[in-house]
Amino acid sequence: MVKVRMDEMSWVEVKEALDNGFNTVIVPVGSIEQHGPHLPLGTDTFIGEALSVMIAEKLGKTLVTPPITPGCSQHHMGFPGTLTLKPETLMQVVRDVCKCLIKHGFKNIILLPTHGGNFAPIETLIMELAMEHKDVKIISPLKLEELIKIMNDVMAEYGVTFKEAGVHAGAAETSAMLHIKRGLVKMDKAVEGFTGEYTISQLYSYGVKAISNTGILGDPTKANVDAGKKIIEKLAEYYVEKIKKELRI
Known about the structure:
Layout: H1 11-19, E1 24-29, H2 43-59, E2 62-64, H3 87-104, E3 108-113, H4 119-132, E4 137-139, H5 144-156, H6 162-165, H7 171-180, H8 200-206, H9 225-247
Parallel strand pairs: 1-2, 1-3, 3-4
Helix pairs in contact: 2-7, 2-9, 3-4, 5-9, 7-9
């Protein structure tokens, strides 16, 4: 298996990869935030990292940077352990990382956020970077709604409703974590979270804790490892398809 994780490579290996046509790089943009009493704070980061590696292997001639964390998680600050950046801070960090990658010779940069609060800052940043670096393609192929739909559609195949699959620490994310980091999932701590109605405006204005005192939006007790494996595979396939279209490779 060809190495794709840059943090596991020496500078010599990265140079050799670039010399051999590895001019595409994926930058996972994760978070350090509460995911209920049963999942670790790094859930979004772990999922993004696993996805990025799988996508890189499927694309070929693609490397993966270490994930950027923390992200924009102000709406989770009602729970201890959560770390957050201001959107402009996250944008500046990602901008600096992109500049490093461009200097080293990468021609295609794929920004891959897996936390809801990171999507808007990344989308804004991409528009700015596109104007600054016209000879480099910088993309973020999925919108948050697509990411959630793919995950929750897989859960539906296992008899789990959209609200049970959830958008945060529910059956979908818990299933994915059972597949990639099973040892960090405490299913004995999993409880049904909030599965009622709320708006995105309420979520960001008042915080998750005002809606769910456990921090769960969904029902993680419905999770299973087979669904989690399929979620990661489906997401990777969908990302690869979108990336190839956008980069025309």
